[in-house]
Design goal:
By secondary structure, the protein is α/β, with parallel strands linked by helices. The chain has two domains: about 200 residues, Glycogen Phosphorylase B (Rossmann fold); about 180 residues, Glycogen Phosphorylase B (Rossmann fold). About 50% of the residues lie in helices and about 15% in strands. It has 16 helices and twelve strands. It has a six-stranded parallel sheet, sandwiched between helices. About 5% of the residues have low confidence.
């Protein structure tokens, strides 16, 4: 089967290591292993950590204008720009369809972009869409003055689509309530490639030795430090944890524009010496850091998101503390990780795992077994393809 995969979001950079880019690249790799031909179309904008990461491609003039004009006007101009971008991409998608002649189009939904929907309807190619977040969440996080137009686009997408994919059962229920045909929609969580984590424990021990941390209990986080991860909870939890456990170290591996706010909170509480900020590391080195952690942590996450980092934590065999959100409990339970829903429960979970190595071992083994048996990217790709084949009659 020939699949035209559209990931046209201008704010999703395919060559970085975000959850979104990992999902796209992993699914495509598995489809290709199964003998399918996939053509990927993206925004064409690259992520460059060495040149400022997410803001690397923003012209200085654009930054200055953004500072001068009112934010409400800026957001409207940004949304209009997104609509114009969608129209441009529509022409490119039509060209790609005529040249590549795909059997299906698979589009990752993005804000104010309906290039794939329009092209698929016009040319008559079976269309499938993946939706990762409700518009209300985008409005809350980034502002969305033209959200009414996006809602219209999105409803057209799942009306025309032969199949709709989401990563959480709560998100599936949300779109069914919005009017999506329940027979068309499938939820399939994210996954992991376990082969990346073979022998990561040994490499992690070498890393601890190199960094002179062998005598520490390491509580670690890997990934972009986003506001929705509620790192203020971690700071407040660390106040009590560090006062009673002087051998603990919090190791933050990743970067973000929000990191400075986090550091200010730590300085205010006098906790800087208990934290290491590693910054961004190469993807191939991530398993080494996870192998060095005694406890891996995710303080919070949006209700609709299936965090790829949790599957990586699990595959590395690291005891994990995770938020008790609907998308997380779709996959994990208190049998295999510590689920938390407040600052107090986060504090209690960290202390319990620091003081109980046997529990760390039990939880990590159960979590690893579950993920390897059920949530490899290979399995996710096969399940997705089965649903596509089954739903082609709509």
């Amino acid at each position: 089967m020939k699949i035209l995969y559209l990931a046209l979001d201008r704010r999703l950079f395919i060559n970085n290591e975000s959850g979104g880019s990992t999902h796209i690249k992993s699914i495509i790799a598995e489809w290709e292993k199964l003998g399918h031909e996939v053509k990927l179309m993206t925004s064409g904008v690259d992520y460059s950590p060495s040149k400022g990461g997410y803001n690397a491609n923003k012209p200085t003039v654009k930054k200055l204008i953004k500072k001068i004009i009112p934010s409400s006007i800026w957001l409207i101009l940004r949304d209009i720009s997104d609509i114009l971008y969608s129209q441009k991409k529509y022409r490119e998608v039509v060209f790609a369809i005529n040249e590549f002649k795909p059997d299906i189009i698979y589009e990752r939904n993005c804000y104010l972009c309906n290039a794939g929907t329009k092209a698929a309807e016009e040319i008559g190619v079976p269309y499938f869409v993946e939706i990762n977040a409700p518009i209300e969440e985008r409005k809350n996080q980034f502002g969305a003055p033209l959200s009414f137009y996006h809602t219209f686009m999105e409803r057209t997408q799942y009306r025309l689509a032969k199949g709709v994919f989401v990563v959480a059962s709560a998100l599936r229920d949300y779109y069914i309530n919005e009017g999506c045909n329940s027979q068309k929609i499938m939820f399939t969580p994210n996954g992991v490639n376990p082969s990346r984590f073979i022998d990561c424990d040994a490499r992690g021990q070498e890393l601890l030795k190199k960094r002179n941390l062998k005598d520490k209990c390491v509580v670690g986080f890997v990934g972009k430090v986003a506001k929705y991860h509620s790192f203020d909870r971690l700071v407040n939890a660390a106040i009590e944890v560090c006062s009673n456990h002087k051998n603990v170290i919090f190791w933050i591996v990743g970067n973000s524009a929000n990191l400075d706010e986090f550091k200010v909170l730590l300085e205010k509480e006098g906790l800087e010496s208990f934290f290491i900020f590693e910054g961004s590391v190469d993807k191939d080195k991530i398993p080494d850091y996870l192998g060095a952690f005694d406890i891996a942590i995710l303080p919070d996450n949006p209700w609709y998101g299936s965090p790829t980092k949790l599957f990586e934590y699990a595959a590395s065999g690291t005891a994990t503390i995770a938020p008790k959100t609907p998308a997380v409990v779709d996959v994990f339970s208190e049998e295999d990780c510590m689920l938390v829903d407040s600052e107090d429960s986060l504090t209690e979970a960290i202390i319990e795992l620091i003081e109980n190595p046997d529990k760390r071992k039990t939880l990590s083994q159960k979590m690893k077994t579950k993920v390897i048996n059920n949530y490899k990217w290979e399995n996710i790709a096969k399940n997705t393809l089965s649903f596509i084949k089954k739903n082609n009659h709509f």
